[in-house]
Amino acid sequence: YIDDDTFEMFNNNNLETLDLSGNRLKFLKKSYFTYLYVLQIQSLILNMNHIELIEDNSFINLQNLKTLDL
Predict the structure, then answer these.
(1) Can you say how many angstroms the Cα of residue 60 is from the centroid of all Cα atoms in its chain?
(2) Considering the entire predicted model, what is its pTM?
(3) Residue 12: predicted pLDDT
(4) Could you give the CA distance from residue 49 to residue 30 in angstroms, rounded to a whole number?
(5) pLDDT in tens, 29-42
(6) With a cut of 70, which residues of the chain have pLDDT below it?
(7) What is the Cα–Cα distance from 54 to 27, expressed in whole angstroms?
(8) How far apart are CA 37 and CA 53, in angstroms?
(9) How far out from the chain centre does Cα 35 lie?
């Protein structure tokens, strides 16, 4: 489980890669990534989870995303 404001602390960070692999995530909600819109996230790693549902537009705020590893 990820709290909706988990990534708020990264709001002014130069984070380019976010690795959430192997965290037993089942659901991805748009709100999880709300605070990442100002970041330069280019790579999002979500492999080795148990993702059953990805909410519509979950990655819409990740405008610089080049790699999505499910």
Answers:
(1) 10
(2) 0.79
(3) 57
(4) 17
(5) 888 887 666 567 89
(6) 1, 6-13, 35-39
(7) 6
(8) 21
(9) 10
Residue 45 CB contacts under 8 Å (≥ 6 apart), including other chains: 17, 18, 19, 20, 21, 67, 69
DSSP string for residues in 4-47: TTGGGGGTT----EEE-TTS---EE-GGGGGGGTTS---EEE--
Cβ of 54: how many Cβ atoms within 10 Å? Answer: 14
Residues sharing a CB contact under 8 Å with residue 50, sequence separation 6 or more, in sequence order = 24, 25, 26
| Residue-level pLDDT at 34 | 75
Residue 52 is given by DSSP the state -
